[in-house]
Amino acid sequence: MLSRIFIKNYILIDELELELDKGLNIITGETGAGKSILINAIDIAFGAKAGKEVIKTGADKAVIEITILNEKQDINPLFDEYGIDNLGQEIILSKEITPTGSRSRVNGCLVNQEFIRIFRELFLDIHSQHQTYSFLQPKYHITLLDSYIKNPKLDDYKKEYERYKNLIQELENLKNASQKTEEQIDFLKFQVNEIEEAGLNSLTEDEELNNELNVLENVEKLKELTGSSYWSLSGDDGSIIEALFQIKANLSKASSMDNNLEETESELISAIETLKEVSSSLRDYSSSLENDTERINAIQERLFLLDKLKRKYGGTIEKVIETGEKLRQELDGIEFSTQNIEALETEISKTEAALTALAEEISDKRQDYAKVLSALIVEKLEKLELPKVRFEIGFEKTILSPNGVDKVEFLISTNISEDLKPLAKVASGGEISRVMLAIKTIFAQSDNIDTVVFDEIDTGISGKTSQAVADEVKELSKYMQIIMITHQAIIASKSDRHLYVRKTQDDKTSVKIKVLDGEDKLKAIAELASGGVTDESVKFAKMLINN
């Protein structure tokens, strides 16, 4: 159950802290006072979308923090999966909303939306006016029925159906590939062969060849430059190295007179050795240079081929290689497709047969449970002052779909003289509210949910019906925590905790929520009953509370 709610800088709320009880928590207040703000805050904390517009004007962020007292659910596997510390019965759920987004935490650990979705299913169910509208739409009825049944085979079916759809898409792709013309296939083969026969191995082959060609085209000049450099270093008469040897001899004599020159002499010896190596390299390089017209022609032909491939298949050798791989895959796919279409069609046929059998099995179970659920809903509706009601879940066969082979629709008749018709076309506002309350009550009990929130479920009812709804909600609150916005004095009188919402408009608009008890609670119920606090309305309120 929700034991504490803390809200700061949220819409019209500066700061608010509320303690909630087990049982029935009633929220009342004048129209437009902001009763739904509290429900919306709870909804957002449990994963509903929230934009920056919920941040109070002038604040940099909004904060919603809910303390949950867990007495039913085994949350260890979920917490272990997401690396969250289990601190005992108390769980702290917090939501921080900023202009750039929002973040959720559980026990201080950041969690994602998928975690919040699973977490919400364990602890909270909110029924709002928007959800009432959704419940009326036939496309949601099969989901409601399945959520009541909880058939594990439905998950197996959905996974297999997804694989089935992927197989169909694969077959379509193969057929499209196999429909290419012979001319297109021949051209594709030509492109693949042209690239593969080029034998592209090095991504920088064109750069390397251009450098080699530049050398071969300048052999004579290179010979002249490197040869003359060699002779300047090592020639017989007047060479640089010969001069350095003379200097070394002089330094050798000088260092014998002053040992401080020994390091200088050593450095000179190293320099001479380096120059001798340079001289040898220049000699070898110059000797290796030869005019090779045949090699020049071969390089030019290779570069011409590489340039042609780059123009056709990409601006670089790397791009050409990538294009070649893609074309090869496409060609292999065509050859594969023509060989494997028949095998894939056989696999699809087998999968479809297995899916159909599983879907029929799921359908049979749905129809069995539909009778049980319909009977339970009728039983609840009879208690809610619809004594002549009939309710059935209609089935219509369809082709294979993500939900199986069933189209499901809720049908109702609230008058004995009328036939069953779709829920959305028959029920009045008050009747819809009671149908939704019946469904929510049944589902909440079967789901073992800790907390159920009803946002104005009592719309369109009064008198004896209000008493029936009050009794039903009070009975439900014995098994779980109920948080409920109501305009009905009869329902409010059943509360274990009464929260009164008030909007103040002084220099700024703000929303305050106060816990009422004693005389304050009595006056609030009296005001709900008659629109004002009079001796008669107070007397009536006392009667309701004591009833």
Count of DSSP helices? 19
Helix proportion range: 55-70%
Rounded mean pLDDT is 88
Q: Report the biggest beta sheet as strand number plus sense, adding barrel if it closes.
A: 6 strands, antiparallel
Named at the architecture level, the CATH assignment of the domain at 1-127 and 448-513 is 3-Layer(aba) Sandwich
Short description:
By secondary structure, this protein is an alpha/beta fold. It is 58% helix and 19% strand. It has a 6-stranded antiparallel β-sheet with strand order 2-1-4-5-6-7, covered by helices on one side. The chain has a 6-stranded mixed β-sheet with strand order 8-12-13-3-14-15, sandwiched between helices. The protein has a 3-stranded antiparallel β-sheet with strand order 9-10-11.
Tell me what the structure shows.
This protein has about 550 residues and is an alpha/beta fold. Among the domains are: about 1-125 and about 450-515, Rossmann fold, CATH 3.40.50; about 205-315. Helices cover about 60% and strands about 20% of the residues. The chain has 19 helices and 15 strands. It has helices at about 35-45, 75-80, 115-125, 130-135, 140-150, 150-180, 180-195, 205-215, 220-235, 240-255, 260-290, 295-315, 315-385, 425, 430-445, 465-475, 490, 520-530, 535-545, and strands at about 1-10, 15-20, 25-30, 60-70, 90-100, 100-105, 110, 125, 390-400, 405-415, 420, 450-455, 480-485, 495-505, 510-515. The strands form three sheets. It has a six-stranded antiparallel β-sheet with strand order 2-1-4-5-6-7, with helices on one face. A six-stranded mixed β-sheet has the order 8-12-13-3-14-15, with helices on both faces. The chain has a three-stranded antiparallel β-sheet with strand order 9-10-11. α5 (about 140-150) packs across α13. The longest helix is centred in the middle third of the chain and has 67 residues, at about 315-385. The protein is elongated, with a radius of gyration of 43 Å.
